[in-house]
Amino acid sequence: MSAPTSFPSLAHALAALDAFPLAGALEITADNPGVDFDALDRARSVLSQSWRDDLPPARIIVTQQGGIAITWGRSGWTLELTVDPYALNAFRLDSPSKMAEWMRANIDATVADTKAALAAMTGGGGGVAAGAAGAPRG
Q1: Three-state DSSP class for 131?
Q2: Statement: the pTM of the whole predicted model exceeds 0.85
């Protein structure tokens, strides 16, 4: 199940998250998996703390495992964050020069990496989690 692909504000993105059925709800089907409550809560936290009006998410979907996948894109760059129901957060950043993948288990590190990646995508510099252990290296 995917939410609309236009999120002009944080409120719209959070409303899209609220529209997903929770795992265990009656409306769950193979084509419409429910989202894990903890993954939903962590996705809301990441969006709330890293929101940029100049680079809203292009897509928010429920993964087959009950997590949330959030995708941002801009001129040759794509950032996909998968908030897993098992407390892991996976990043994939495709830039014009390379692709990097990494994971975070801590929500603070996830928010920091998301902010840094979005800043890099908008030309704000700082790289992706500059100096953070486990962050992709050039």
Answers
A1: coil
A2: no
